[in-house]
Specification:
By secondary structure, this protein is an all-alpha fold. The chain is built from 15 helices and no strands. The radius of gyration is 17 Å and the shape is globular.
Length: about 260
């Protein structure tokens, strides 16, 4: 919620404003239902601490192997949608769009693997919004475009290996549930989210399957739900779910940029 609010107010990506809002969320519970932050990942909390100590925003995210949590992937959808609209208006190149995505990821997660997850998600978002046909067809097209983009630079090849299971989504769809992990590792989160989409036929089914995998349920549900919402549409969100949202009017106003 902090991200679209910042994008709307600033008219684009402002790293300091984003980090200021993340800090307000962390320290004072901004953007939460009850003004209370009850859970925060280690990498994210460390990045916010570095920012408070004066580190450049784009240098705050950790770059070690152990910094590949799913925090930046979980919050990247508003940036993907902003860049999608920006591309239509001013013909932003894919290189520039992905560069921005990587920089926004690096606010809290600076490892290239985490940045790639955000980039892959962006291509999935674009393919869903622009494509026709079944969900699996659109997701496969998005994956193909993401892999093609990253393969332009041979330095990405090693890290791309982390996402090998997503090369062929029809084969991945048949993966048994006990081979799907819903841990906080960014690769697992992306895999689990896509697997849930491939093995369900509605928004409700996709989100329920995601959270019922257990472990890091909120993040897998958010990542899967974002793509499911774009494909199935707002009208397919169960009304009983919407009715229980705290501060629903404020949330919907923020979404509409009012």
């Amino acid at each position: 919620m902090a991200t679209p609010d910042s994008i709307h107010i600033k008219g684009g990506i402002d790293a300091c404003d984003l980090m200021d809002r993340f800090s307000e969320w962390c320290m004072h519970g901004a953007y939460t239902p009850f003004q209370e932050n009850f859970d925060i990942g280690i990498s994210t909390s460390q990045a916010i601490r570095r920012y408070a100590e004066g580190t450049d925003p784009f240098e705050c995210g950790g770059t070690a192997e152990g910094d590949n949590g799913n925090g930046s992937l979980m919050r990247i959808l508003p940036v993907c949608l902003y860049l999608y609209e920006r591309q239509k208006k001013i013909c932003t190149s894919e290189n520039e769009a992905v560069h921005i995505l990587h920089k926004v990821s690096a606010l809290t997660h600076g490892h290239i693997r985490s940045q790639m997850a955000c980039g892959i998600y962006y291509f999935l978002v674009k393919s869903i919004l622009e494509g026709t046909g079944t969900l699996i067809d659109r997701l496969q097209k998005g994956m193909d475009q993401a892999l093609s983009f990253y393969r332009q630079d041979f330095r990405n090849y090693t890290e791309l290996g982390s996402y090998d299971r997503l090369n062929d989504l029809r084969a991945f769809q048949m993966t048994p549930e006990d081979e799907i992990s819903s841990s906080g590792y960014v690769v697992h989160t992306l895999e689990a989210s896509i697997w849930c989409l491939l093995n369900t036929d509605s928004y409700e089914q996709a989100v329920l399957k995601a959270v019922n995998l257990g472990a890091d349920t909120d993040t897998v549900g958010a990542v899967a739900g974002g793509l499911a919402g774009l494909f199935y549409g707002y009208a397919q969100i169960p009304s009983e779910w919407l009715e229980t949202i705290r501060k629903r009017e404020w949330v919907e106003q923020l979404i509409r940029n009012e």
